[in-house]
Structure formats: C-alpha cells, structure tokens
Specification:
The protein is 68% helix and 2% strand. With 175 residues, it is mostly helical. The longest helix has 26 residues. The two termini are 19 Å apart.
Length: 175
C-alpha cells in the first residue's frame, strides 16, 4: 500500500517558520526512530481497502496514528517510570522528563493540526473524543496500579477498548 516517511512529515521543511525548533521535538524524533513494528500503518491499509478511503485521508490518518502513538509512548514511559523503550533508553532518560513531556504534548497538537487540515469538523471532534478516551484509559491503568487495585474484567475491558485501534477506526469512519 502507501508508506510514509514520518521523519519528513513531522517537522515542516523550515521548522523555525512554523515556530518549532528541532531541539524541542528531539525526544519525539528519538522515540519515532525506535524499533517499532508499524502495525498502525498496516491497519490503516486494511481499513482503506475495506472502505475505499481517499489517499489524502489515508496518509493523514497514518501520520496522525504514528504521531499520537509515538507521543503516547513517551508519556506512558514517564507515567510508568520505564527507563527502557524497545531496547534503548526511554526519551525522558535521554532528554529529561520536562523536555520529553513537552515534545509529546507538542506532537499531540501536530496531530490535531493534521486532522484539521482535512477540513472536516467531524474528524477533529472524533479525534478529540478518542484522545480523551485514550487518556482516561491510561488514567485508569495508573490509578489501579497506584492504589494496588485489581479491576473487574468489565472495567479492564472498558479500559482496553479505548486504544489506538479505536482512534484509527474512528478517524477513517469520518470519511
């Protein structure tokens, strides 16, 4: 199908023109270059075949899924005190927690900007809704861990249902 070079899409050609310094997103790029399997890209290709989504939308959804996933890895590593990500030091270990958090948060807004560039308010609203659910699910996971609680099977299923797959599917369903 259609592959994308994320390293070329994340930052504008002249980051300073967009108000972005490459150093600010360094933790994001560091994590993006990790040894991931790129499963989200394959999932989007599957949805594209089933739903016949326009190429512009497919590329945007791949971009958004990868940006959001990478940013969420950075945040998750900080929240879980993880020092190793895919065999390498986690971004916050290399760059410090404040810069890593800032890069992840900035990436979330780059994803929103990409969805907004498609010109469909419904897609932006869906994206924001799914992002809230992703964070609520992560919050439940942290809460249960910090309180040393074991969720019921129903609570756990609800938490897991708010996943990246849900975000990708919802993004494509808007088209």
């Amino acid at each position: 199908m259609y592959s994308i070079d994320m390293s070329r899409m994340i930052l504008p050609r002249r980051p300073e023109e967009a108000g972005l310094d490459p150093e600010i997103l360094a933790p994001f790029h560091y994590t993006l270059q990790g040894k991931g399997k790129k499963v989200r890209e394959v999932l989007v290709d599957c949805f594209q075949v089933w739903m016949d989504v326009p190429l512009e939308v497919v590329l945007a959804v791949k971009y958004v899924a990868e940006v959001l996933h990478t940013a969420s890895l950075i945040v998750d590593d900080i929240e879980d005190n993880t020092e190793i990500r895919r065999g390498d030091p986690a971004a916050h270990v290399v760059f410090g927690t404040p810069l890593a958090m800032n890069a992840a948060n900035c990436a979330y807004f780059l994803a929103v900007d990409k969805i907004a560039s498609l010109g469909k308010l419904e897609a932006v609203q869906s994206f924001i809704h799914e992002c809230k659910l992703l964070h609520l699910g992560q919050g439940l996971d942290i809460y249960w861990r910090e309180k040393n609680m074991c969720p019921s099977m129903e609570e756990y299923r609800r938490m897991v249902s708010h996943s990246m797959v849900s975000l990708v599917a919802q993004s494509l369903l808007c088209y």
